Amino acid sequence: QVQLVESGGGLVQAGGSLRLSCAASGNIFSINAMGWFRQAPGKQRELVARITSGSTIYADSVKGRFTISRDNAKTTVYLQMNSLKPEDTAVYYCNTHGVRDYWGQGTQVTVSS
C-alpha cells in the first residue's frame, strides 16, 4: 500500500502561482511514476503532469507554465504552477503508478479572474 498526503492548494488570482506537494509513504518501492491529475466540475479527470526516473510529460494546456519535480528520495512530488488561469480551477489529485495506482485525497485550486 502507498499513502499520499497532498498540500498546497488554495485561492489565487489569475497570473499568480501555487506550489502543490505530495508526500508518499508505505511501499514506495512499488512506484514507477508519480504525477498530478485534475478534475474540474462537470469534467473528466485529466492528466496534468507525470514524472518517471527518466522523463516528464505535461498536458498541452499547462506546458510552459507548470513544472513537475521530485525530491532525491523520490518520495515527494511537486507541481509548481505559474501564470495560473481561471481554467486551471479544479481539484488536483496526486497519483502514483506502479503495480497499481494510488490517489491522494485531492486539493482544491481556485483561480479567480
SSE diagram, text form:
Layout: E1 2-7, E2 10-13, E3 18-26, E4 31-39, E5 46-51, E6 56-58, E7 66-70, E8 76-81, E9 90-98, E10 102-103, E11 107-112
Structure description:
The protein is mainly β and 113 residues long. The chain has no helices and eleven strands. The strands form two sheets. Strands 2, 4, 5, 6, 9, 10 and 11 form a seven-stranded mixed sheet that branches. It has a four-stranded antiparallel sheet with strand order 1-3-8-7, with no helix packed on it. The model has no long low-confidence stretch (mean pLDDT 95).
Label this structure with key terms.
single chain; 113 residues; mainly beta; seven-stranded mixed β-sheet; four-stranded antiparallel β-sheet; 11 strands
